[in-house]
Every structure is written in C-alpha cells, then in structure tokens.
Amino acid sequence: MSTSTIGNYDVVVVGGGAAGVGVGVALKHAGIENFVIIERERIGASFAKWPAETRFITPSFPTNSIGMLDLNSVALGISPAFSLEVEHPTGLEYADHLHGVAGFYELPVAMPISVEEVNREDDIFQLRTSKGTVSTRHLIWAAGEFQYPLEGSFEGCELCRHTSTVPSYNDLEGEDFVVIGGYESGIDAAYHLGQRDKLVRVFDRDAPWEKASPDPSVSLSPFTLQRMRKDWFFEKVNLFQTQVASVTRDEEGYLVTTQDGSTFSTDAPPLWARGFAGSHTTIADFCELREDGFPLLNEYDESTVTPGLFLCGPAVRHDSHIFCFIYKYRQRFAVVAKTIATALGLPAEGLDVYRMWGMYLDDLSCCGEDCVCSQREARTKVTA
Q1: What is the pLDDT of residue 66?
Q2: Per-residue pLDDT tens for 1-31?
Q3: What is the maximal distance between C-alpha atoms in the chain?
Q4: Is-contact 202 233, C-beta < 8 A?
Q5: d(Cα 343, Cα 303) in Å, to the nearest integer?
Q6: d(CA 68, CA 383)
Q7: DSSP string across 288-348
Q8: What is the pTM of this model?
Q9: Which of 4, 25, 131, 196 is deepest in the core (most CB within 10 A)?
Q10: Helix, strand or coil for residue 172?
Q11: Closest CA to 170 of 52, 277, 58, 74
Q12: Taking the CA of residue 80 as centre, how many other CA atoms within 13 Å lie in the half-sphere pointing to its CB?
C-alpha cells in the first residue's frame, strides 16, 4: 500500500471503507491495474469510529464452502466470520478485517490523504488533495456516510449530540437520556444505555419499531427486535411516536419539547440518531438529484450528467431500491468495474464469477419483492 498519489490514473476511488475496498477488489478482477484508492485516515476509518458497543446488525457466517457469501463480506472468497470468529462484529473488528482484505489483494491504497476539491475539465477529473493533484477519467466516489452526520432542523438541535460522536456509551454521564430517532442507531443507543440501568426515552414520528417490512432499510432488523425483547428493555426504555420540536438548556439540564406540546427533562445532552447526510453531498454539483436528495444514477451507477463519475456505497439508490447495507451495495461493485473496464477496452472476464456469488446485480426488476409469508405482518408488536 502506497503513501503518495500524485499522478494520472485510469481510475481513482475516493474512500477506503467497505465500498472502496470492495470495488477496488472488483477493479483488480476486471484487469484494471492503473488505479488508486485515496483514504484520508485509515482503512475502515468510519467503522473504527463506531461506539465501542455497537455491532453489525447483519450476521456473519462462514458459508463460502457451500457457495453462499458471508453477508458482511465485500470480496469473493472472504468471510469476516471466518477471519474474526464472531457473528456480529464490532466496528473496530470490521475495520481490521477490511485492512486485512486490502493487504491480501494488494490494493493500491494511498493514505492518509484528504481530497480537498474536485474539478472536471475536458472529461478529466482533477482532484486537489493534501499531497498534490490527481487526475483521472473515471472517478468512483465511495467515501460513505458515517463521518457526515445529518443535522437536525428544529430549534436547539445544536445542543444534541450525534450518536456517531460517542466513543462508548459507558462514557456518557447522566441517569436519564433522550434519544431522538428510533431506527437502528437510536434503538442501539437506547439498548446499551438501558443495559447500564439508565432510563431512556426514544422519540420518532415514524415509529419504526411498529413497521412490518421485509426490507431492513425501512424497518428494524431482527437483531434489533430480538434485543428489544429482553425482559428489562421496556422497564428502562420508553418509546414515543412523536416529533421533537425544540431542545433548550437550563441550570438543571435539558428540556425537550415535542410537537404536541409535551415536555421532557433530561440531565444529559439529547442524543441525535436521525442518520447521516452522507459524503455524496460533496459531489452534488456533478449530479442530478432525486426528490429525496440522493444522486440520480444511470443503470451503471454513473452520474446522469457527468460521465465517468460513479457512486459506490450506501448512498446508491435506484427507484425505490435502497442499497444502504453492505450486502446490498456490494452487488453493484462488478457493474461499476465492468463499465469502466469496457471503456478501457478490457474484457473483464474475471468478473463473470461474481454472478454466481450474488455479487453482480444488473437486473433491478428482481428487487423489492415482499415476503410471501404473512407471518411477519401478524407478529405481536414489540411494544405490546
């Protein structure tokens, strides 16, 4: 792995996380040699910054021997479950796993280097970095989202603390907590605080804990629902289907007011768990945007207005399909690699095996089917 990137490349990948490493492996399998992955900190930096207690909601299992790829793998023949010997890795464990994958495949990762500005002239992208200028015709944006938290829009949102900035829930002082946001990160925070015998109130207008959908992008995962069934959970955690209108501070702590006028006091800064703006906002000027604010992509995950700019990672959207989990967006690595390889005149025959492993999804018509079994629809609500 190198430490300097100044020069011209056929492909530049920005981001050395799961998406960057995964698409880097696909580029190698496509026969592309003149490429670089630019990472501003360390491989898997976003995962390494997760709260210490947070774990993957998707389980890992070493199923390669029977032709099924580990859900948390980003490359063929690799299983985090086998290398880490855990089913639900921590963020730091997974960052170490990604480092191992990059080393095994000898990926050209340049770090620590920050991308400070992106320009495009005569079909060439010019990336001004902390170490010099990098040029390429094909730019893959894979910088992820965890280090780009979404800000609140209500009065006093600046008084809240985003869950992505919490090193460990054991370090938080206070006896009662307010969590704004009831999806995965919000319930994860509530679970770990409640486990420490703290009182927690969770506010979310969508009440995702009551949603029944086969897509974990819009409902809580089985891993999270199972933890919510702990005997102590609802003794410590109260769930409210409402929206926060404001947060104020006084001598005793913080006052949270909801849209219906109810007020709740807490002695700790409210935890903001409403997701991430994502790094794709950095390249928004090179993209048309969908109604939901995400980049509009063609069938090859390429910008519809800036040829040569590709998106990899959790910000990928196609119609109503949300590729926000690793096992989802990894299915598009080969699509991007194949497209670029074709433009470079390479046959990319090494990508053919990706289809067999469920890593080459170029037919989106097969996505989005509901479960035929209605058992989930009829399940007893976790709040009952």
Answers
A1: 85
A2: 444 457 899 999 999 999 999 999 999 999 9
A3: 67
A4: no
A5: 15
A6: 35
A7: -B-TTSSBPB-TTSBBSSSTTEEE-STT-EETTEE--SHHHHGGGHHHHHHHHHHHTT---
A8: 0.92
A9: 25
A10: coil
A11: 52
A12: 27
